[in-house]
Amino acid sequence: MASALKIAPGDSVATLLDDARAGETLTLAGDTLTLAQDVARGHKVAVAALAPGEAVIKYGYPIGHATAPIRPGEHVHSHNLATALDATLDYRYAPAPPATLERPTAASFLGYRRADGRVATRNEIWVLPTVGCVARTAERIAARAAALVGDAVDGVHAFTHPHGCSQLGQDLGGTRAILAALAAHPNAGGVLIVGLGCEENQVAALIEAIPATARGRVRALTAQASADEVEEGVAIVAALAEAARATREPCALGELVLGVKCGGSDGLSGLTANPLVGRISDRIVAADGSVVFTEIPEIFGAEQSLMDRASDHRVFDGIAGLVNDFKRYFLDHGETVSENPSPGNVAGGITTLEEKSLGAVQKAGRGPISDVIGYGAAAHARGLTLLEAPGNDAVSSTALAAAGATVILFTTGRGTPLGFPVPTVKIASNSGLAERKPGWIDFDAGAVLKRGFDATADALLARIVAIASGEPTAAERNGEREIAIWKRGVTL
User: Fold this and answer.
1) Of 125, 218, 260, 491, which has the fewest CB atoms closer than 10 Å, so is most exposed?
2) 124-243: which CATH topology?
3) pLDDT at 29
């Protein structure tokens, strides 16, 4: 007998937990259904008759409308379900009563406490090029310096990009803001900025954009003005590493800044991995910690549920503004707001953006949203912060790191090897992925289906504590450490 999960009592579809064949039966809340077609794991099957134009309900919310008659037991996907998303909207401020979050058990991790009071999960030297022209130079400096400094710090890493020249206005400002925010990150015990000399993103302007409290551990060199920029850079990094020596000490769970992200999602992401991360988010928020979430185009269709959690009218206006600005961004470029999901999402069982969004927003748990910040800005509020960034995995994860996340929880149903400046914990939505790609995956959220959410959340929290205390993630072991910057506007 096939197994499936109906998430909310009023849902008109259930999600298959295993591949199933036509003629197999499902039992849901005492009702028995016979499958009309073969249905793959993560895909949906109707549990009620649906007429053309009728809303299809999952997670207790509409995920689109039926485009053909659908009988109970039939596969529900792109052939008979379509999005109902439209352009920009007027939203209502209707705050819901705040959820009661259970305080976590006393938990702590071993972190590096910085002079400004922030706590780091790594103590590294970061080499940041101002412009793509010196990206390889930055990599050469980092590679040579890493061999030289030994165990003085946890690592030396160059984070390269192709930008910094031929940029104007907001586009140049975004590049500068991201690099300045990364230079101020607590996980960087020291930073070397490598400039070329003639680029738009001038070294002096970039340093001026770095918060004054962080500039003391930042050094810079300009390649065009140096007799040997690599030798000079290696010497600077060696001095930074010696000055950055530090010792881990016990730190409260609430001193973590958690970034949450999903990528390569499948039909189980919204049933296992994302709600599991939501429970971790709730524990961090309950411990007076900080959680940052983003992917604005991937909350289209679920935005009202977030707006209802705004801590005040200012936050509500911020969420509504971000959502409508992103919709306008799509429309101004001649694109529909519902172009998502990706081909991989569709193959994994996600049909519409509403469905993807309702699953994705669960990573933010149930707590109130305390703040809304722009791209390249740092998160300062305790609790949940919504960050302006697109859904692209590399761009949004870089923005989370720049906002101050010291650990990123990255859920995936399809798998990806990508890693980012801070420890990136890959969480599989299904056990098959975790078993197939152990070199990519740090945690199997498919265990939720056997062990339940509470026990699995306890295990995931223990894994996060170990990683925050220095245990490397799969991406770190694989040398997967990179950034991507949101490119907008005119290129000269």
Assistant:
1) 491
2) Rossmann fold (3.40.50)
3) 72
